[in-house]
Structure formats: structure tokens, C-alpha cells
Design brief:
The chain is α+β, with helices and mostly antiparallel strands and about 300 residues long. Helices cover about 45% and strands about 20% of the residues. The protein is elongated and about 70 Å long.
């Protein structure tokens, strides 16, 4: 039998925020106090994981099981947890326990959150109904949202980091409360030709494409496709494609060590001077000026 333990699992990630952070008087008090992360963690294959909270917990606890199994109990009522299930335990004073399965230990992402709007949240969205584990389709976007919050807090506890992490918490909660809506909004609609065309542009960002080239990918005439695209997005396909190229160039200027000439080629402009003119026209600054101002 595995030794019972709270944490210390190989590959785990864990942050517990010091309480004094929320006892001060920060500038952005609304965003820091309404709902905020108090603890956040990732326990992979957490053999022996066990927590006993005889006085309950003043935070809401969200646990998302990605693999393996586990269980939890509230005031003696036990619930089993399986892969691709999540549950939210609302703040409670009732005895609370949760643990990983002895044979197939769970892999979990979890967040504790609280704040002066916690009661309103729990009542408005009937959080008590989410105690019973819910099965949801796997959605990598949830993991990325969790990582945004964790990585932000991992960089320090400035008001900016805390505010960004806590605002992202709302998005993370929403992705669990409305799992199907989250999938709809983060996947490309099979019925929207403009979304398909934009994805095609992104995958061919270095190419020199015409309206005819893009339209032919979807068996449309150039004129019909252009009308559909402009109706959906408000601009022409070529203008949109150029803006995508400039967005990509901005990312490379800010986050890479590539030279301007190399970036120009990577977004489909073999002539670096022409690229610089287009970039300046759209971004209001030369590539070098943008790089000096925004490079991290």
C-alpha cells in the first residue's frame, strides 16, 4: 500500500499563495478580491495522494482528472472519479476527504479559489450540483488555461500578475461550466468558409497567394469567395492575409532573435525593404523600432 501524502509527486507543479497578498490594499482590489486563486497544482500519477480536511475547506476546490482514478467524500457521502471527469466542491465546513486510487492513481489538475464573490458564484451557477463528477470531452484548451494561470503566478506576485491570473480564472471556470460552448468557440466551424480560409492562410503564411489560389482550395470562384469572405469579416481576403503576415512578423520580432530579413522571408516577403514599408504602414513603426520596443 502506498504511503498517504498530500504532495511531493514526481513531476508535480504546486503554488500556494501566501495569505498576506490578499490582506493588503492593492490598487486593483476588485480584480484581486472578487475571485482569486489561493492554491493551484498538477499531480501526475499521484500514487498515495490523500487529503483529510475534518473541518472542510473555505475555498472552492476544482479538480480535473485526466487519467487514472480517485475518490472524494463530503460528510461521509463518497463519489468515485474517473478519467475526463471534473468536480467542484463548494466551500464547506463539512468533513472532506479525497484520494487517489491505490491501483490506478489519478493525474489531476486542480485549483482552489475563493473571494468575496464566491457565494454569489456558487448560488448563480448552482455549483453544489457539480459535486457529482461530470464527464466532459477532452479539451486541450482547459490545460492551456490552467498553464496560463500557473505560469503567471510562477513569475511572481505583482499586482499585474495576480490580476491577470485571477481574470484568467474566470475563463477557466467558464470552460468547465460550459464545456460544449468552449469546444464550439475554440474549434473551426465546418460550415464557415471564412474560418477554413483563415486557417488555410495561417498554414501558408510564407506563401504568395492570390484570391483565386485560396478560393480554389474550397471549389469557389474568386469573386464569390471574396464576397463571402468580406461579408463575414468586413475586409478582403488579401487584406486579411497581409494582416496575418504582419501579426506573425510581430511575434517573431518580439520573441525571436531572427533578423528582419529572415523574418520578412518567413512571412512571404523576399524583399526586406518592401516588407518594412508594408509593416510600417500597418503597424505605425519600422520592424527595428517595433523589435526594440517589444522584444522580451
Amino acid at each position: 500500500m502506498s504511503e498517504k501524502r498530500r504532495d511531493g509527486f514526481s513531476g508535480e507543479k504546486l503554488i500556494s499563495l501566501p495569505k498576506f497578498l490578499f490582506n493588503r490594499n492593492p490598487e486593483n482590489k476588485f480584480f484581486l478580491d472578487s475571485l482569486y486563486v489561493s492554491h493551484i497544482g498538477y499531480f501526475p500519477k499521484a500514487s498515495g495522494h490523500y487529503r483529510n480536511r475534518p473541518k472542510g475547506c473555505s475555498d472552492n476546490i476544482l479538480i480535473y482528472c485526466l487519467d487514472g482514478k480517485g475518490w472524494f467524500s463530503i460528510d461521509g457521502d463518497r463519489y468515485d472519479v474517473f478519467p475526463n471527469q471534473f468536480f467542484i466542491i463548494p466551500a464547506t465546513e463539512k468533513p472532506l476527504k479525497y484520494a487517489s486510487d491505490l491501483i490506478k492513481p489519478w493525474t489531476i489538475y486542480w485549483v482552489h479559489f475563493t473571494g468575496n464573490q464566491l457565494s454569489d458564484l456558487n448560488e448563480s451557477f448552482s455549483i453544489k450540483n457539480l459535486i457529482n463528477p461530470k464527464t466532459i470531452p477532452f479539451d486541450e484548451h482547459k490545460i492551456k488555461l490552467w498553464e496560463v494561470i500557473y505560469n503567471c503566478l510562477d513569475k511572481g506576485y505583482s499586482d499585474e500578475n495576480l490580476t491577470y491570473a485571477n481574470l484568467s480564472l474566470y475563463y477557466l471556470i467558464a470552460s468547465f461550466l460550459f464545456p460544449q460552448k468552449n469546444i464550439e468557440l475554440t474549434q473551426i466551424s465546418s460550415h464557415d468558409i471564412s474560418d477554413k480560409a483563415i486557417e488555410f492562410m495561417k498554414n501558408n503564411i510564407a506563401a504568395k497567394l492570390s484570391v483565386r489560389d485560396i478560393a480554389s482550395q474550397f471549389s469557389y470562384s474568386a469573386s464569390h469567395f471574396q464576397n463571402l469572405f468580406r461579408t463575414r469579416t468586413g475586409i478582403s481576403p488579401m487584406d486579411y492575409f497581409i494582416h496575418l503576415k504582419m501579426q506573425r512578423a510581430c511575434q517573431l520580432l518580439a520573441f525571436s532573435d531572427l533578423r528582419v530579413k529572415e523574418i520578412a522571408i518567413s512571412v512571404g516577403y523576399p524583399d526586406a525593404f518592401y516588407f518594412s514599408r508594408i509593416f510600417h504602414k500597418i503597424m505605425g513603426a519600422s520592424p527595428i523600432e517595433y523589435k526594440n520596443k517589444n522584444q522580451l
